[in-house]
Amino acid sequence: MNRAIIVNLARFILLVFIQVFLLKNITLYNLSSPYLYILFILLLPFETPNLVLFALSFLMGLTIDAFYDTPGLHATACVLLAFVRILFISITVQKEGFDNEPEPTLSIMGFRWFFTYALILTLFHHFFLFNLEVFRFSEIRYTLVRVVLSTIFTVFLMLISGLLFFRSKERK
Amino acid sequence: MRNLLIFISKYNAFFLFIIFEVSALIIYIKYNSFQKATFINSTNQVTGNLYARADHLKSYLVLSEVNDSLAIENARLRNQLKTSFYVDSAAKHRVNDTIYKQQYEYVVAKVINNSVNRRSNYITINLGSNAHIEKGMGVICDAGIVGKIINVSQHFAVVQSVLHKDTRFSAMLADHKDIGSFIWGSNIDAHKGLLIDVSNSAQPKLGEKVVSSEHSLFPAGLLYGKVSNLRAKEGGSSLNMEVTLSVDFSKLQYVYVVINKLAQEQLGLEAQEKKDE
């Protein structure tokens, strides 16, 4: 338990740093901009209480907002992401499996599950984030293109980082 | 109550989601003025659209009233236009004429009435006694001499243009300083004047400038025009010549009134002399 807190705290700080100081400057053709920091919310342990999950998502969003000068924008998207995460996990993962599989990482859950998980959650997050940022339906086409391309970029980075920290021995 | 608590704890994720989402949105809308403005707008988009359509139809029924009110509005605005106001402030330009120890003051005035095709032509300007314009003052423009003030009211003054049968100004040939009188004479050409009574010893040339002399109410050296014909009017004991005027009187827009600060002194002195005789 203690180990989980330390790992997640380190992950939190690391992802915020990567997001703010590296990925914030990356935008491909004004269309695709990665938001890798949501990986923190995706990788929180299964048995995280809902209250803690929402609070951490909210905190993560606000932290990013503080750096992006958009108070509430990322927090809103992150809280939605947390909710989608709860729904997705409750549908796809059996409750009794929680003890064996503490974290929904790539190495534990396998590529197929993790890919679907990351893709759907990132899509939700990005769709909500971009639309909330633009806040008008007249640019919905452009916004959707941005959502899709940014999702591809973000999921790509998630998979890379998952493979980077791949620990085969944890796979049962 | 217990059932309610069970219900809430069963679906705690949803309620927590609502709480956090609403608080995040409140932060977002409160601190982002763009979304704040659009939020208010988008809530009114449907109703606003309907209202706009209804109003569009309704507007046809009141067109005549709208026209009347617009006409009144136009008249009111026209009254506020700059052109409908009398310009009360006079812009002054001071010229310190050190050679002749006289101080001339120039006051800009706008020509508001003008004629060129009569035997006696007058120009009305938009400055009067309020701007210290007095009878007898000279009027010039950038191209040359225009005339002299013959009548002054509070806000206006009438200028006897050079194109007047009684015009008679002291003038001289610019190069040789031979003095004569500048008249318009019996001419009715708005571009021609006459320089008469020049002494026979003068040797005027074609194209020589005719300027105001030191004896006139103008500062010396102001242009009347150029000599264009040396034998305009034969006879008499002196030389007469035709002068092409430098000022295009039909296009006068702005003129300067020359205020001679020492004119009063000079006139007083001359009047005393006359009295002594």
Describe the structure.
Chain A has 172 residues and is mainly alpha-helical. Helix content of chain A is 67%, strand content 0%. Chain A has helices at 2-21, 39-42, 50-68, 73-92, 106-109, 111-134, 140-164. In chain A, helix 1 (2-21) packs parallel to helix 3, helix 4 runs antiparallel to helix 6 (111-134) and helix 6 (111-134) packs antiparallel against helix 7. The longest helix of chain A is centred in the C-terminal third of the chain and has 25 residues, at 140-164. Chain A is globular, with a radius of gyration of 16 Å. The two termini of chain A are 21 Å apart. Chain B has 277 residues and is of the alpha+beta class. Chain B folds into two domains: 2-80, no CATH class; 92-276, Rod shape-determining protein MreC, domain 1 (Thrombin, subunit H, Beta Barrel), CATH 2.40.10. Helices cover 31% and strands 32% of the residues of chain B. In chain B, the strands form two sheets. Chain B has a six-stranded antiparallel β-barrel with strand order 2-3-6-5-4-13. In chain B, strands 7-8-9-12-11-10 form a six-stranded antiparallel β-barrel. In chain B, strand 4 (138-141) and strand 5 form a beta hairpin. In chain B, helix 2 (12-31) crosses helix 3. Chain B is elongated. The N and C termini of chain B lie far apart (128 Å). The model of chain B has no long low-confidence stretch (mean pLDDT 77). Chains A and B meet through helix 3 and helix 4 of A and helix 2 and helix 3 of B.
